[in-house]
Amino acid sequence: MSSQEISEEGLPAGQDTAHGAVAVADDPFADPGLPAHKPRIQDIDERAAKRSERAVALMFTLSMLATVGFIASYVVFPVDKIVYIWPFGHISALNFSLGLTLGLALFLIGTGAVHWARTLMSDVEVADDRHAIEATPEVKAKVLADFADGARESAIGRRKLIRNTMFGALALVPLSGVVLLRDLGPLPEKKLRKTMWAKGKQLVNMNTMEPLRPEDVVVGSLTFAMPEGLEEDAHDFQTQIAKAALMIVRIEPDDIKNKRQREWAHEGIVAFSKICTHVGCPISLYEQQTHHVLCPCHQSTFDLSDGARVIFGPAGHPLPQLRIGVNSEGNLEALGDFAEPVGPAFWERG
Fold first, then answer.
1. What pLDDT sits at residue 345?
2. pTM of the predicted model as reported, rounded to 2 decimal places
3. Which of helix, strand or coil describes residue 321?
4. How far apart are CA 306 and CA 267, in angstroms?
5. For the chain, which terminus, N or C, has the lower number of CB atoms within 10 Å?
6. Does the pLDDT at position 277 exceed 70?
7. How many C-beta atoms surround the C-beta of residue 11 within 10 A?
């Protein structure tokens, strides 16, 4: 059968019988448009809308309580408290409570916002044509109008319960970040300004662990001392010795140039902090002819015959001097604490 014998009734719809081309009747890429809007139960029933409003407000309120719980956890749980929680096992009570409360606070804000958007905010889909990047006055006016419409459709002005609880939740959550600043380290208080030295504390030789007597210190010698009562096996030994370590040097009284240094010494025996005022390195190099001590880290040099002033290097301040004397047993003792903070300068020396 030839093609000429096929009747036109049997051809596909839209076929051009003259040229043999098939034309599609409908455009497959045509814009189908937006589906018909189906109102939600909250749109037609105010009681359902009120229930949704209360649900959202409850989530925001629970978020506020969780944030308060986060802050309270810092007070209630000590850092070293370990508890057993199935299925996690033995974990830190503080870490668990902080993670749980902060996670709940953020989660409840998110779920409250999502529930608010899905049940109470307008769900009418709006199509808008693309426009040029620069905004014309008409576009600006339209944006402001759309913003006003969005604010009105969100019912944030009419749903005061949601608005107020949301503001409360959002206002409290940042407090969690403020509390987290506490984890940057312990508060310094006055720990950097005070050492173990006090009136009546005997000077103990760090090599022999015996109290120092004036006759133990000869001219030209360098001796290291620490406060009486400080034990090497104590848990805070390194913290305390880092502030209280002393250099003991005996200088001929006539060679001491600084008046206060001479008054705070005992028969030419002077006691200075061993901690360099640059970055806190221990000083251990002494030149007996010049009475200079050298920090081995950055070569800061101090003159122990002139108030331990800096004569070379990056250190910014003299070494603090400890006022000493002799007790009734004939041992060297401190007559107080250092007058200045020990070690590197901080906060312009406090």
1. 66
2. 0.51
3. strand
4. 16
5. N
6. yes
7. 13
